[in-house]
Please model this.
Amino acid sequence: MLVLGIESSCDECSVALVEEGRRIRSNIVLSQVESHAVFQGVVPEIASRMHTESILPVYRAALAEAKVSPEEIEGVAVTSRPGLTGSLVVGLTFAKAVAFSLRVPYVAVDHILSHIYAPQLDTPIEYPHLTLLVSGGHSIIGEVEAFDRFTVLGTTIDDACGEAFDKVATHLGVGYPGGVQIDRLARKGDPAAYRFPIPKLAKGNHRYDLSYSGLKTAVLHQLDQFHVDGKGSSLEDVAASFEKAAVDMLLLRLMRAVNDTGIHRVVAAGGVAANSYLRARLAAETGLEVYVPPLELCTDNAAMVAGLGYHYLMRGESSGYDEGVRARVPRFRHSYP
Ligand code: KG4
Ligand code: ZN
Model:
């Protein structure tokens, strides 16, 4: 089955064509990052307007690259939750229009589940497996039972991991989005230059939870001091030390989950999984069977949407034309969705 995937949940407008849930025929991603950079963050109104302008050309580019005519599309999959409401509406409405005009089924899928599915496009991975899903909006350690279901073991109690990368980068004055810049700077720095705190979260039911707000504040204080007394370390050292603390925290909680569940198969996903230090640390961790998708499948893309949607469509499940978007997914703490 040839599935058309559509992704517009945030600031990437993407359309893909994927066969049998795995073979990527095309995966066009148009990033709006330059339009939001001046604001140091995604501006929802700008994002949705830009999706409106770009969805049709991106769709045409995906068809052209795959050398496919619209009549060959057998099903449509689209992100409908969670994300920016106005941006999601553009993708969902477009998906309904394509499906209606071609008389094929369409299915509205979850963005988190698509990120978790992304590595399956590269290589088949057996269930159950653990997931380390770290992006600009989410930081989740979960046990994945199937393509459509997982149990959240831990999540952030405050900021998301990617958000911390972005905020630290903003304060370092190295540009937006920050993850890539921190990654680049940190390669030239000393990760032992500063010892930043990793919260223990010992109280309550937080065994696998994460917290990035304290780490971010500690880095900002350090930067203030650095600028005040102007001696010693460099931005590269701050970036490397922050990155080490951020990744140490992820691995500490992840290894806890590995030991408690006895599941050694680990899949990293989401934008922060593009981080070269995290990828190296995961690869060096012995006793783990680690899967990390190629960089272009870590960040938002429509191939993961088409890949995931294929499985619902094959089960005969599709969405109705009354389907709406959801900015948030409720009851997130335990089982998902
Ligand atoms: O998955 P994604 O594209 O969008 C969301 O759904 O959030 O993730 C974007 C996040 C941003 O916070 C970005 O700074 C971070 O992923 N990111 C990175 C790297 N590349 C992207 N963080 C650390 N190192 C990277 N190389
Ligand atoms: Zn995402």
